[in-house]
Amino acid sequence: MLVPGVDPAQWARAELLDGGGLGLRFAVGVHPRHDGELDALETWIERLGAVAIGELGWQQGVPHRDTFMDAQIEIARRRRLPIVVHVVGAHGHALERLRRHGELRGVVHAYSGSADLVREYLAIGLHVSIGPSVLVNDARKVHAACVAVPAERLLIETDAPDQIAEPAGLREVAVRVADLRGATFDELADLSSQNARDLFG
């Protein structure tokens, strides 16, 4: 399991989790709703052996901190780590900022955009992760996006604890994604697991 960091207080809690022998992997980043410092970010990347940088990104209704997000992306590039991108209601702005960095490696997590925008994220090198919003029966935009993601760029997630309370809920997401894509549960589980291993090492 990958546990994304969103603020410095969470990074410290992650260190306690890691002592439990659970085989967890960590991302370290500063979410658009939180504050942090780049020096501390670099320290915790080392301390947790982070396999990605994030969550970083942009959210409608939250002031955009472009320079700070750009700096996190550049840290990821320098360290050859993927990024975990949070985007809610700000896809146009996010894509404009992300394109400034050239080709990237990472994932747009808990994807909420259209099927057309999937192509834009793929074009800059990113994977797309489908989360629990796919479980909403009338979420046609997310359903269409789920089908539009190429097999080799598809990930799934719980977005726990925000959307689903715990990691065990991933099975429900996987069943729904498999159904929408005309795959079996086992095929979807194998595919998404391999994609995660390939992306995060």
Description of the structure:
Helix content is 45%, strand content 16%. It is of the alpha/beta class. The protein starts with a strand and ends with a helix. The model has no long low-confidence stretch (mean pLDDT 93).
Topology record:
Layout: E1 2-4, H1 8-18, E2 25-28, H2 38-48, E3 52-59, H3 66-79, E4 83-88, H4 91-99, E5 106-108, H5 115-123, E6 126-130, H6 140-148, E7 154-156, H7 170-181, H8 185-200
Parallel strand pairs: 1-2, 2-3, 3-4, 4-5, 5-6, 6-7
Helix pairs in contact: 1-2, 5-6, 7-8
Uncertain residue ranges: none
Please report which band the strand proportion falls in: under 5%, 5-15%, 15-25%, 25-35%, 35-45% or over 45%: 15-25%
* Terminal CA distance: 12 Å
Question: Could you say which overall geometry the principal axes of the C-alpha atoms support?
Answer: globular
Order of helix and strand elements from N to C terminus: EHEHEHEHEHEHEHH
Considering DSSP H and I runs of 4 or more, what fraction of the residues is helical?
40-55%
Q: From the helix content, strand content and strand pairing, which structural class follows?
A: alpha/beta
Strand order of the largest sheet: 1-2-3-4-5-6-7
Number of helices: 8
Sheet with most strands: 7 strands, parallel
Average of per-residue pLDDT values = 93
Based on CA atoms alone, the radius of gyration comes out at: 16 Å
Please report the total strand number as a whole number: 7
Short description:
Helix content is 45%, strand content 16%.
Tags for this model:
7-stranded parallel sheet, alpha/beta, 7 strands, 201 residues, single chain
